[in-house]
Amino acid sequence: MNKKKIIITGGAGFIGSHVIRRFVNQYPDYQIVNLDALTYAGNLENLEDVESKENYKFIKADIRDAELIESIFETEQPDAVIHLAAESHVDRSIKDPLAFVQTNVIGTVNLLNAAKKTWKSDYSKYRFYHVSTDEVYGALGETGFFTEETAYNPHSPYSASKASSDHFVRAYHDTYGMDTVVSNCSNNYGANHFPEKLIPLSINNIKNNKSIPIYGKGLNVRDWLWVEDHARAIDVIFHNAKTGTTYNIGGHNEWTNIDLIKLLCKIMDKKLDREPGTSEKLITYVEDRAGHDLRYAIDPNKLQNELGWKPSLQFEEGLEKTVDWYLANEKWLNNVTSGNYQQYYELQYKDK
Ligand code: NAD
Ligand code: DAU
């Protein structure tokens, strides 16, 4: 196989860091370039174990800067892009939708343009893989699943921006013939998850005896997937999907928020040697998220049947492993919550 140079965007973030680690370790013949702006969500501490590997390099760059991105592509001459860089948090998108348009929509188009210019319409050797979310499909009622055929119906500014970026990627396939692939995944959990999201926020709050904010009645349903299973799915799809295709990624693992948090509280009581029931007392119902989608649930049959991927971990086991990781990595958590990992964080996290 020819040496492949892959630009992975957003590699300093939660999922991106797991994808980088997987590709750097599994494919020593590939050159992996992590392109990331290091916003509040980017943390190079996530990649300490791979930063000195010969087939890895980091470039600090903002995908909103079209000229810069074009010049990086010209210099690096990548064979492929795996695009994860994004503003990813729904609550932030409600406060500042434009930031989501700028990074998720315009940033994606800047990458597509740079790839188009560098690859000079000879797309047979190149691939643009766009990582997206199940939120583009909108919300389900109590039954049914999102398939690859489900019509897009995004509700939040975040999901609207991701839907738009998905459409642009497909448009570059349909209009210019670019080799593109899109995957839409359900909620991820695991190590290095930024503690603004439900699971790591709750672990951190329970550890510090702070209240656990549950939006509305806690009855919204999310479909949770171990982040390393997502990284493995991206690997399988990147290498095997036909051009222009889409795959949904999920593991049939639906939980209401309140049931999930009660399970987490039980695990935390055990790990912290607290009386059973101690952590549950921290649960506090707060004002609901505006436009809060009721339920997400992925039908992963296409991915399982065509490419043979299936999730490796049961949720209870994965959640316990996640708690163990956060308790063992106090330095990581303290650096993030104190803002020591980067100054920019001060400005961004404190308004949560
Ligand atoms: P994250 O917020 O943890 O990380 C995002 C990364 O992108 C950070 O390293 C950040 O520095 C970088 N970034 C942000 N803006 C940038 C810009 N303008 N230029 C360059 N880099 C920039 O996000 P995540 O949860 O790891 O999600 C990664 C991708 O996967 C996103 O595209 C997201 O929509 C998608 N996704 C996430 C989930 C989930 O459960 N977290 C599920 C499905 C899909
Ligand atoms: O479905 C995939 C999506 O999952 C990704 O595309 C997003 O990038 C990712 O952030 C995630 O979005 P959610 O909004 O589902 O994740 P979050 O952790 O913010 O919230 C999970 C559920 O918990 C949701 O129903 C809102 C609720 N919640 C969240 C927070 C932060 C609470 O009840 N309290 C909270 O404090």
TrEMBL record:
Keywords for this protein: Lyase, NAD
Keyword Metal-binding among record annotations: no
Domain of life: Bacteria
Catalysed reaction equations from the record: dTDP-alpha-D-glucose = dTDP-4-dehydro-6-deoxy-alpha-D-glucose + H2O
Keyword Thylakoid among record annotations: no
Limits of the NAD(P)-binding domain: 7-322
Gene Ontology terms describing biological process: nucleotide-sugar metabolic process
Database matches in Pfam families: GDP_Man_Dehyd (PF16363)
Any one GO MF annotation of this record: dTDP-glucose 4,6-dehydratase activity
Enzyme class: lyase
Gene symbol of the encoding locus: rfbB
NCBIfam families, per database record: dTDP_gluc_dehyt (TIGR01181)
Record's protein name: dTDP-glucose 4,6-dehydratase
Cofactor: NAD(+)
Family per similarity comment: Belongs to the NAD(P)-dependent epimerase/dehydratase family. dTDP-glucose dehydratase subfamily.
Enzyme Commission number(s) of this protein: 4.2.1.46
